[in-house]
Amino acid sequence: MATTSNPETLQKIVAALGVFATSTDKQQIASANEWLQDFQHTIEAWEVSSTLLMAADSPPPLKMFAAQTLKSKVVYDLNQLPSEQLPLLRDTLVSALQQFSSGPRNTLVQISLALSSLAMQMPDWAPTAVQNLIETLGTTPDYVAGLLQFLAVLPDDVSTNTRIPVSDDEYRTRSQSLLTENCENVLNLLTMYITAQGITPHIQKLVFEVLSSWVVSGEVSASMVGQTPLFDSMFEALATDQLFDMAGDLLCDLIHETQELDDNMPIVEKIVPRLIALQPQLEADKEDPDKLRLWCKIFCEAGETYRMLIVHHTETFLPLVQAIAQCAASDDLDIAQLTFNFWYRLGQSLGKQRSIPSDISKVYEAVLNTFIGHIHFPMDPESTTAQDQDDFRSFRHDIGDVLKDCCYVLGADFVLDRTYGILADALERGMSGNAVAWQEVEAPLFAMRALGGEIDWTQQNEKILKIMEVLPGLPAHPRVRYAALMLISRYTPWVAKHPEHILSQLTYITSSFQDSDLEVVSAAGHALKYLCQDCRAHLVPYLEQLYGFLATVGPKLMQEDRLAIYESIGWIISSMPRDIAANTLRKFAVDIFSTIQVVPGQNATHAKVIIDGLEQLEQLLDVVGSFGEDLPPACETTAVEVWAVMSDIIAQYGALPDICDRSTRIVGKSHISL
Q: What does the pLDDT average to over 425-434?
């Protein structure tokens, strides 16, 4: 192995690196990491790292550490070296770039980054650094990969490495020297390589990587690329498995950099026909998810970038939209999800137009059907993992947003009508004796719930009336019932304008509290809260019914669900005339106090009952709010009565913070509410 001026230091480095490979002890790993970091900041690290990096017998992990150390020291510790030693350091790094040109890649990248950072800090070398390296390495086949790797990391490192200690003026001058003044040289170099006879796939990948880096940095424009053989080579590489990923990513970057359409129309006119010609690949590669994902990424990037061209030149750009719709129809939901932002951005743009081309509307109609199909739960939910189920729920909510995007193009009434038609068809088939899976009923219910925010409640809508009429007769499956309850909670503004439907909705909701599925019970609480909040005045006649429901069913519910009921009741009470509201509030409060006062003993179970009761009362008071300074007659003695109960509770349970805090708050609120 390589020798250094301090063999003991070498042994410590080897030992510390060995800890990462063999030890699982966190303290030991932390100690080794701390020692290595301390070593990297020493002056000795310059010589040790250079020696280890260039020594033929150093093992790969040691060389990687040496390259990382040199990169770090060039960024943070270059002031440790006298200026006359910088050319020697540069020559060492250039030699390392030659030596590691064939790999390993991770070590080559670290060397390239070190050389890039050094160039930014050598004012005498920066103006000629790129050209020097091209002349030194570019004509020797064995060193071409090293040169290209350096050119690949250079733009990003110069643009984003804010840790390099140079002034703003120095940064502008040197970045101009390293990048802007060399963009044509680099483009010519890449063109020479890509057209060379016998070029290997590895070099082709590096050429595309360099080009992508310089395009993304803004130093090489898409129009400049379009004037070189690199443009055709990129599209040709899409037909090659070895180059597909790199060429696809490059095409995405190139399209993204043409966003200033007025300045880039000539290159856009070259890209779009070539891209449209590739649409058949979506079908050809549909069984290869990795390829299909990249195709989808390419078409979506084009669709988002050229969305205004789609709006104003639909006939020409329609195939792009159709290609993205084809991606959206993929059974791989991760791929379908890539299209979401496109539908949103195009929908926003189309929604501002006076008229929408019929061809675009037809695509959106197909997409609407596609996404309603995607939100169907799996036929065998038990076969999926908990993580899969969480991911799918998140995916469904994202699709809900896409359905709203469809409203910008098709109109909310059309989307609601189409979605209701899917539900009605499933129910009709079920009534005819055909087997209908619960997923076929639940999906359109979920979709209609998502559309609630797009509906104008002030307008008459026959479809909403039909929706409300079919809800009580839906299949009793818990997922269907949950979806129906969540739909009701979203459509309560419509119910408020059509109070004749309150009884059927209230009955459906209250019966759902007795379901064995806890999510259904929670959804019932959610629906009841919004029904009472939006329809509070209309629900006053039903308050006695809710009072009896609370007395019989309430004790069987979880505290969270009871709180939802008390909040709902609070909304109804808040709509009553003051004197009636006061008497009604007192009635419910007395019931809660009665429950609290009969609790025996002082163990944890009894304390929980008291905490729950206080929480219910506080929920009720928070919603009803204040009766003002002039209290109704029913509240004149309230403060004394409340204090009598609260003082006893505080005396027994004052050591428990939850009870003490809630009791104190209720005493304060009772002065203005009870």
A: 89
- Residue 290 sits at φ, ψ, to 5 deg, of -65, -45
Count other C-beta atoms under 10 Å from residue 3's C-beta. 11
Between the CA atoms of 214, 217, 218 and 221, what dihedral angle is there, to the nearest 10 degrees? 30
Question: Tokens for 139?
Answer: 């004509």
Where residue 154 falls (left for φ over 0; alpha for ψ -120 to 50; beta otherwise) is alpha
Closest CA to 570 of 524, 512, 527, 617: 617
Residues 216, 257 contacting (CB under 8 angstroms): yes
How far is it, in rounded angstroms, from Cα 147 to Cα 507? Answer: 75
Kindly compute the dihedral angle of the four CA atoms of residues 124, 130, 136, 140, in this order, to the nearest 10 degrees: 170
SS3 label, residue 19: helix
CA 590 to mean position of chain CA atoms:
48
Confidence class for position 671, pLDDT limits 50, 70, 90: low
Identity at 25, one-letter amino acid code: D
pLDDT value of position 636: 64
CB distance 300 to 346 below 8 Å: no
| Position 532 pLDDT exceeds 90 | yes
Separation between Cα atoms, residue 181 and residue 217, nearest integer Å: 14
CA atoms of 137 and 100, how far apart (whole Å): 12
Q: Which tokens hold the place of 389?
A: 């189920």
**Residue 571 backbone dihedrals phi, psi, to 5 degrees:** -65, -40
pLDDT digits (tens, 9 = 90+) for 430-468: 888 888 899 999 999 999 999 988 888 877 778 888 999
| Of 270, 323, 271, nearest in space to 292 by CA | 323
Predicted pLDDT of residue 1: 42
| Burial of 269 from C-beta contacts in 10 A (0-12 / 13-18 / 19+) | exposed
Torsion on CA atoms 32, 33, 37, 43, rounded to nearest 10: 20
Q: Give the C-alpha separation, 252 to 256, whole Å.
A: 6
CA dihedral for 505, 506, 511, 514, sign (positive or negative): positive
Give the per-residue pLDDT at 601. 57
Q: pLDDT by residue (tens digit) across 311-360?
A: 999 999 999 999 999 999 999 999 999 999 999 999 999 888 888 889 99
Residue 175 is classified by DSSP as H
Residues 6+ apart with CB under 8 A from 377: 392, 439, 442, 443, 479
